[in-house]
Design goal:
Two copies of one chain form a homodimer. Chain A has about 210 residues and is of the alpha/beta class. Chain A has helices at about 10-25, 35-40, 45-55, 70-80, 95-100, 105, 140-145, 155-170, 195-210, and strands spanning about 30-35, 60, 65, 85-90, 110-115, 125, 130-135, 150, 175, 190. In chain A, helix 1 crosses helix 4 (about 70-80) and helix 2 crosses helix 3. Chain A is globular. The model of chain A has no long low-confidence stretch (mean pLDDT about 95). Chain A binds a DNA duplex (24 and 24 nucleotides) through helix 3 and strand 2.
DNA sequence: TAGATTGTTAATCGATTAACAATC
DNA sequence: TAGATTGTTAATCGATTAACAATC
């Protein structure tokens, strides 16, 4: 397999879904599956599933199918689900708190090691045993503690400076919930969750379905 | 323009971003723009922007560009940003609370008219003046109140029954935050926000950048 | 072995980019 | 008018689907 083959983001976005269904099969005690079965579960075509998986190697066995445990383990490695991550959250408003309190995080190897905010009313409070610190402490904290990922839950006007601060302190992955586009160097992974845009996409289809064509 | 021309979801997902930047231009008092300028702001190619917009009509003027107010208003109509929506939230845990408390909602014409949960500790509490009701009341409530959109913030095992209940009571748009796939009829708009999958996508690129190639 | 299902190449489809005539 | 920029067609690129030889 060509190490440097360019994998499209469309492929990458399907992998977590495969992973989710494979984990579900394991929970049900099912240890064998096929691209056809995965197709029925995920809604993606069997052909596409085989193409996707073969970007990363031949995980199946001709004539047989896929070993669920093996395949989920391989996909887990690809998407990084096999690792633990130290995370900081900047912005302890609605979304920041929701992220900090989300237990799925802890179960999946994500460890929130610090939370920052600039609101004095929030500083000093704790979410899941992590005390909210003054945002002014972020540089000091990051210079003393290794952190994998930063989550931006600030208002949009603070998003870019927050990102800059993370980048300057060596963070290489940013999950951005602020409703704005931020700029980061090429070697920093960035994933945006733009809820506003998601909602407008919903209302587009909602109106398309409900508005009478005259 | 062909009324029934199929517009790809890729196009639809770009529209809110155009809308966001156009609103920003208006705030800055800029009333004229071009596909070239929009390209610099959004990162999409000028050609693509013109193609996208011309799916819905000729909003520009040859030799001149686009009137910002007019274009934002037209895009707003397309994505439904010009309307108000009555919303219910089911599940008042971390995410449900964050959504309910999100003020951007109210500013943009979204009105949370009811919140439901099954946890007795939450029932009776209020978020932004909306009292959390027992989930068992949902059918009664929906039979008596018109609601546009339903937001699912339940654990995954309750997501499908929640969706079914919304659909049976005539809700035509669902915003799903539960980490599972739900099935709805074709005439119901569905938008999934799968944070787990978003996070795995981030860790994929994070590991790709940070893991040394040997 | 025969049947099943992968891995992979080839064909198709759709989306993006390029080019340019229209026109303000 | 000349310059600028759209709207739109054509060309290119990439992603998905189809097909099938390999093989368990």
């Amino acid at each position: 397999m060509d190490r440097d083959k360019k994998i499209s983001t469309a492929v990458i976005r399907r992998l977590p879904k495969y992973y989710r269904y494979l984990k579900e099969l394991l929970r049900k005690g099912i240890y064998k599956t096929s691209s056809k079965e995965l197709s029925q579960m995920t809604g993606f075509s069997a052909s596409q599933i085989r193409q996707d998986l073969n970007n990363f190697g031949g995980f199946g066995q001709q004539g047989f199918g896929y070993d669920v445990y093996n395949l989920s383990s391989e996909i887990g490695k690809i998407i990084g689900a096999d690792k633990n991550y130290k995370i900081i959250i900047v912005g302890a408003g609605n979304i920041g708190q929701a992220i900090a309190n989300y237990t799925g995080f802890y179960e999946n190897g994500y460890d929130v090691v610090a939370i920052f905010d600039k609101n004095p009313k929030l500083i000093g409070l704790s979410l899941r045993n992590v005390t909210i610190q003054d945002i002014d402490e972020i540089d000091t904290f990051l210079s003393q503690n290794y952190v994998d990922l930063g989550v931006i839950c600030t208002p949009k006007n603070a998003a870019q400076t927050t990102a800059d601060s993370m980048v300057q302190n060596g963070i290489k992955g940013i999950w951005n919930f602020a409703p704005t586009d931020i700029r980061v160097p090429d070697d920093v992974a960035l994933e945006n969750v733009h809820l506003n845009e998601s909602l407008f996409s919903l209302t587009y289809y909602y109106n398309k379905n409900t508005t009478k064509a005259d």
